[in-house]
Description:
Layout: H1 3-12, E1 19-21, E2 24-26, E3 30-35, E4 42-48, H2 51-66, H3 75-91, H4 93-104, H5 108-129, E5 144-152, E6 155-159, H6 165-178, E7 182-186, H7 193-205, E8 212-214, H8 219-227, E9 234-238, H9 241-253, E10 258-262, E11 268-271, H10 277-289, E12 301-305, H11 309-320, H12 341-357, E13 360-363, E14 380-383, H13 390-393, E15 400-406, H14 409-417, E16 421-422, E17 424-428, H15 432-441, E18 446-449, E19 464-465, E20 468-469, H16 474-480, E21 482-490
Parallel strand pairs: 6-7, 6-9, 7-8, 9-10, 11-12, 11-17, 12-15, 14-15, 17-18
Antiparallel strand pairs: 1-2, 3-4, 5-21, 10-20, 13-14, 16-19
Amino acid sequence: MTTTDWRALAASVTYPTGLLIGGRWEAGSERHEVVTPIDGTVIAEVAFATAADVDRAVASARAAFDDRRWAGMAPADRKDVLVRWAHLVNEHADQLAVLTTLEMGKPAREAKAIDVRACHRTLRWFGEAVDKVLDEMPKVGDTSWAMIEREPAGVVGAVTPWNFPLTLETWKIAPALAVGCSMVLKPAENSPLTALYVAQLALEAGLPEGVLNVVNGTGPVAGAALAGHMDVDIITFTGSTTTGRAIMTAAAQSNMKRPYLELGGKGANIVFADADLDKAAAAAAWAVTYNAGQMCTAGSRLVVHESVKDEVLGKVLDAMTALQPADPLDDSAPIGAIASARQLDTIHGIVLEGLDDRGRLLVGGEPVLTETGGSYYPPTVVDDLIPDSLLAQKEVFGPVLSVLTFSTDEEAIRIGNATNYGLASAVWTNDLSRARKTSKALRMGTVWVNCYEEGDLTVPFGGVKQSGFGSDKSLHAMDKFTDLKTTWIELS
């Protein structure tokens, strides 16, 4: 696809704009404008769910679960539907990519290569896993049988964010549906289009009516209704720690549904003096600018040994000169737009507040391309920070790099752990013993060694501390949506 192709598709792509409840599209009583961060124009008007709409969606999911139209299918048949759905995603890759770009500003080239690919692979991987997850029958003696069965937990509520809409939606949808649950999905209010398009493909793939329902809407209305609903068995959420706390409280105060939360992060790239400094610097620049820094795993702290600090920082600044924001429909755009004007204001506000607290601005620090009407922020680097300064502690969720130094291995570990978050960080060293010691000491859900943001569907993704709990990806993700049931049969 060329820039011309992306622009033409952006002007012609069609998609649902309603609520999906019980396998049918509904116009809804409330409508909301979707604004593209590319130039600030309105690109769509979609239905927004009321609390009553959420009630009907949950009732639809409950009916689909109770009559076992999906949970009662042979695993091989559920697999066929999920794999067919994955193939449809692949066939509609260009449309899904351009919708991702329009609604949240990611370069279309990357949306197709990364987000759509992840969506396709996730549906296919969990589809293929459906009939390969086995129950257990432990040895308990000659006169008794014991069976341990994994049963689908019931109705799952999922609330997903705007930064990786396709990826993070299917990380929740695929394992939940694979084990036989039904679901009500609430996508982020400013990025519902990809969720609606993927749901339409699910119906085409043969997913029974009511198994997947989509209720666009706001967090305080639709999200809160799901989190506090007495007939939702599990609530799974990716987003801010503040909202995660509210969801956890609502889950406890309603029917004590199980919450699974994937929250914020303040990732560190810890660079020791013996590391491959070229590789570490290139990764540090990429890790805080990819997706315009709007990642919970963003490497927003560069923690570098004092003896190589100037060399590494120089290389990072050089790399960032080629990572400037541009129109994401341009096929050569290194990075795209910030997802919304509100998020742009948030990023800039945190930078200004942080500089008032401490730090020296080296590059960036002001919105750019303002004449377009869109939301763009350049790579920004702040030096001379200490571990407890605001920019070293607060999740910015933008392309803002905080630079800190250390002198000993123990100090590097202390700085790496000196945050309320515990999602992901990286260690750069050619000393295997140092790599193992440091990675073991970091309280993170994921530690990368001599790389950043690597992974696979076979490995779990989740955090510790205030980054939440409950793994997305891998077979462990399926465990979240099942209940263990023991049946004991006495034979004598």
